[in-house]
Write a structure and sequence with these properties.
about 600 residues; alpha+beta; four-stranded antiparallel beta sheet; 10 helices; about 15% helix
Length: about 600
């Protein structure tokens, strides 16, 4: 057994000698810029240009870019006020996600408390008003559940909502008279209902597709129309078994169903004049963009390359900026006007190999898997099953430095969009209930069988790995499927479900109650069946675990419980603890973790 907390050799820093996998992490990256509604030349984005992910202000008129935040463990949660005057950012401690909002002038200056009078909490949404002095701030704590507050400069915060179940701020209308909230007062954290209130908390309108929790349909706030006095709210719904946009007039109650003839999930946002919608369509691990004219109901596809659009925004001139990548090509912020919008200087990220689609018949239906392997190499290969987190998420044809690093080292990489994943319809996502973890592993095992039978994967050299929920499935799989996996690498996992439940942030407690049908005291048998620690004595494979000591999502105590059980039976394992939360925003730390994982696999996998 090895426990690692100190530094490891970092390898060459000369870019001429730096391996491609490390260059992918070190290359400067940027997020899709957010622009101020009333000052569109002012933008905010996230970049790792300094080696740590931080917020940057960008004045498009002058070209000036300025680093806004500078913290040892990085900053990614920030919002630009509609007037472009203020940058709000969330200040937690070393990644623990528990903190307060601060703000800084766009042009630079000292940080100040953005919502004086509100105690530290987990964030539960934020909406900023166009008047430059109003905000709606959502908070979550173990003691209070969710509270939502109206905050105005120079006045004490006013609580306008409180409930034990999870909720969040959706949006604030253009004129500041309406506030849209998402809530789960019915007790189903996977399917929100909507409520619109006035600034004093007085209810205006309700929309609830859960029907008291008996019909599992969710709603989400996509945004108020960006027009003065307009009471239209763009929302997402699941009434036809997938996510689709709908326009709801909260004053009249009228619902305008778009009924778009597209096969996959859809989201949308307003064009700046409120006359059209920018529709993002996701289907079978790829995505594309459309413009929907609300007057003519004409749907026009926008020209984007094959791959994944992970964010898009319509500009006042009618162009659309979007963040795009594919498994072979690194991400870039592009425009429908042509060219790259934001291209950071410095080292360019090498590409990787394209992804191949595989469909496998599983116990709950056809399973979509994405496969990458070294070019020109035939199997059977050592194969990494890299399991996504969430669980309500999905792997897509997008660029990912982690899988590319495994490919560079001669491994095939298989990513499985198991039941519970998004992007394949509501029934596929909602199948993840009660037999939590076990359902996903049935699908992963089916794809594993295909990988071995097809000649892709060497059955004696199979790595099960993932982070967060993927780390949880890794530990659970090593215990419930001990003969299927050669070794496991789990990052920030759930390891002891009962202890994790009691220690995690309140919003995740609500999700666990929904997934498992109650608390550990109410349904102990389900928590036991779904907990990796239940099966720890059946684990045969060497296990590597990494954990953030400040993680509020997969807290450290429950991981230590699992590790002690491994120690007690002398199981082969290594543990790496780092001073951050649910992952790291520091590039050197990310590289260090990947190097440790690659080294663990090289030492413990049989040679081919």
């Amino acid at each position: 057994m090895t426990e690692s907390n100190g530094p490891v050799p970092q390898g060459p820093q000369d870019h001429q000698q730096t391996p491609d996998w490390e260059k992918r992490f070190r290359a400067p990256r940027v997020s899709l810029p957010e622009w101020a509604e009333d000052a569109p030349d002012r933008s905010l984005f996230v970049s790792n240009a300094t080696g740590t992910y931080e917020l940057y202000a960008w004045n498009r008129a002058t070209g000036e870019q300025r680093q806004v935040t500078d913290r040892p463990n990085g900053t990614t949660d920030g919002v630009l006020s509609p007037d472009g005057e203020w940058i709000w950012w969330f200040d937690d401690k070393d990644g623990d996600e528990f903190g307060v909002w601060r703000r800084q002038p766009f042009t630079g200056g000292e940080d100040e408390p953005a919502a004086p009078g509100l105690e530290p909490s987990y964030p539960a949404g934020l909406a900023l008003g166009r008047d430059g002095r109003t905000a709606v701030v959502g908070r979550s704590t173990d003691e209070d559940g969710t509270t939502i507050h109206l905050v105005r400069d120079g006045e004490p915060p006013v609580e306008i909502y409180r409930h034990r179940e999870s909720a969040g701020v959706g949006d604030l209308s253009h004129d500041g008279t309406l506030i849209a909230l998402e809530h789960t007062e019915h007790g189903d954290a996977m399917h929100s209902a909507l409520r619109v209130v006035r600034p004093d908390g007085t209810p205006v309108a309700e929309l609830d597709d859960t029907k008291g929790g008996t019909v599992e349909l969710g709603l989400e706030v996509l945004g108020f129309a960006p027009v003065e006095g307009d009471t239209r709210l763009l929302i997402g719904h699941q009434r036809r078994g997938r996510w689709e946009p709908l326009v709801w007039d909260v004053a009249t109650g009228e619902e305008s169903d778009l009924a778009l003839d597209l096969p996959g999930d859809m989201s949308a946002e307003w064009y700046p004049d409120g006359s059209a919608l920018l529709v993002a369509h996701s289907f079978e691990a790829r995505s594309e963009l459309f413009r929907f004219d609300l007057a003519t109901r004409e749907l026009t596809r926008l020209d984007t390359p094959p791959g994944t659009v992970s964010g898009a925004s319509a500009r006042p001139d009618g162009t659309v900026e979007y963040l795009w990548s594919s498994s072979a090509e690194p991400s870039a912020v592009r425009s429908t006007a042509g060219g790259v919008v934001l291209d950071p200087p410095g080292l360019k990220s090498p590409g990787s190999v394209p992804v191949e689609d595989v469909w496998v018949e599983g116990p709950g239906g056809r399973i979509h898997a994405l496969v990458q392997k070294p070019a020109g190499v035939s199997g059977p290969l050592p194969t990494v099953f890299d399991i996504h987190g969430g669980p309500t998420w999905h792997d897509s044809d997008s660029f990912a430095a982690g899988p590319a690093a495994w490919v560079d080292h001669g491994y095939a990489v298989v990513r499985v969009n198991y039941r519970g994943s998004t992007g394949y319809g509501r029934a596929w996502t909602d199948a993840l209930k009660h037999r939590v973890g076990l359902i996903e592993l049935e699908d992963i095992a089916a794809v594993r069988a295909w990988a071995v039978d097809s000649g892709l994967a060497d059955p004696e050299r199979l790595v099960l790995t993932g982070g967060s929920w993927g780390g949880y499935l890794t530990l659970l799989g090593l215990g419930t499927q001990p003969d299927l996996w050669t070794l496991g690498i789990a990052a920030v996992p759930v390891a002891d479900y009962v202890t994790a439940y009691h220690d995690e942030m309140e919003a995740l407690k609500a999700m666990d109650r929904t997934l498992l049908g109650g608390t550990p005291e109410e349904v102990p048998e389900r928590f036991e069946a779904s907990s990796p620690i239940t099966y720890v004595d059946q684990v045969k494979a060497p296990v590597y675990i990494s954990a953030g000591v400040n993680d509020p999502r997969c807290p450290i105590r429950q991981i230590e419980n699992y590790v002690k059980r491994l120690q007690a039976r002398g199981a082969v394992h290594e543990v790496y603890r780092y001073d951050a939360g649910h992952g790291s925003l520091v590039v050197d730390e990310r590289i260090k973790q990947v190097r440790l994982e690659l080294d663990f696999a090289a030492r413990h996998l049989p040679r081919g």
